[in-house]
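Project channel, design review

CF: Before we commit to the Amycolatopsis echigonensis constructs, I'd like one complete example in the thread so the newer folks can see what an input/output pair looks like. Taking MarR family transcriptional regulator.
RD: sounds good, go ahead.
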Amino acid sequence: MPAERDHVDGVMAQITGVRADDRVSKALSFRLLRAARLLETELRREFDAFGVGLWEVELLGALKRAGPPYRLSAGQLLDSMRLTSGGVTKRVAGLERKGWVRRDIDPDDRRQILVSLTDEGLARAHEVFGMKTQTEARLLGVLSRAEQDRMNDDLRALLLDWEGPDGRA
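CF: and here is what came back for MarR family transcriptional regulator:
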């Protein structure tokens, strides 16, 4: 056991009647949840400084990852973000009001709506994702590259088991 104890060690010291193997998985679960919450809290704080919310970053990211011309159909956004059509519509409308995306009718299928990053939206995406990368590096930099690689491998194995290779289980 490491010399320094964290909050989870204190919580686990208070939990009784749990088998040793179950204690290990319970402590790991607590730590994963706490780490995810702390990372999300810090990212939200950083995003607030840019006037952008976490849900907006997710949509900007989906469009940016699509590559030039930074456009996806509403259905593709729905699949990428795993939201309802109403949820995607609400988020697109919010970014459209900010001037970061635009909606166009697909010239090849007039029943489809295409959502594209505007020049302003692309510039904002570059700023936000640059800051996000710096924040992640700062927060996770306490771990060596080898430790980060090992943690990535371990978490990948969990996610593959839980949700499959396409993340849709």
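RD: helpful, thanks. DSSP finds seven helices and three strands in the chain.
CF: The chain has a mean pLDDT of 91.
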